[in-house]
Write a structure and sequence with these properties.
mainly alpha; globular
Amino acid sequence: MAGDDAFVSPLLALGASGGILASAHLATDRFAALADAWRAGDTSRARALGHRLARLSTRLFAEPNPAVVKGVLHARGRIPTPDVRLPLLPASEEAVAAALRELAEAESQAASATESTAG
């Protein structure tokens, strides 16, 4: 099992059975697709997904966990508040904005990939 979001892809490549990942709250389908791709031996798809998800995870962990994750979930209307418990502080606007941009780019790439395989 992987526990460090940014390193889940290489760990899956080495035989890990899965991961416990905060980032998966925001990209569940892509993390599941990553695990499926490694299990199926589709290394080119797995590597591409892994690189994209590692960039997302890096943005989501730019400040202490779970501040940025909660900030993004809140910005997307999925939770009522971005508040975290003390001694943590809420994520900065800059960190949340950077994570939102990375997430939007990942979603756009996923949609493009889906369209190209469907058509």
